[in-house]
Amino acid sequence: MYSRFTSTIGESGKNRELRRPEWVHTIRSQAFASLWLKAWKAHKAGLILVQASGVDELHVAGGDWKTVWEEGRKPTQMKVKRVYTLGETK
């Protein structure tokens, strides 16, 4: 939702009639706050925060994240983008 909204209402050339840069800043700030609240929740649950990137990507280690969040696509849920092993050599 975040990327679609900001690309439509921000500095996009596709939608010249609807240009509200202040909305983009508000939505972006909320997305960052949401990510950091999820990072804090992971920390409190004993997970190790490896990386937080963008506005929607949280990398954790040290336990089962499914005990902290439900898996799904809703804003309160998490989904797996990729799984990797820390310290793995190829």
Description:
This protein has helices spanning 2-9, 21-44; strands at 48-53, 57-61. Strands 1-2 form a two-stranded antiparallel sheet. α1 (2-9) packs antiparallel against α2 (21-44). The N and C termini lie far apart (36 Å). The protein is elongated. By secondary structure, the protein is of the alpha+beta class.
Number of separate helices: 2
- % residues in beta strands: 5-15%
Shape: elongated
Number of extended strands: 2
What descriptors fit this protein?
two-stranded antiparallel sheet, 2 helices, 90 residues, elongated, single chain, alpha+beta
Short account of what is shown:
The protein has 2 helices and 2 strands; from the N terminus they run ααββ. The protein has helices at 2-9, 21-44, and strands at 48-53, 57-61.
Please describe the topology of this protein:
Elements: H1 2-9, H2 21-44, E1 48-53, E2 57-61
Antiparallel strand pairs: 1-2
Helix pairs in contact: 1-2
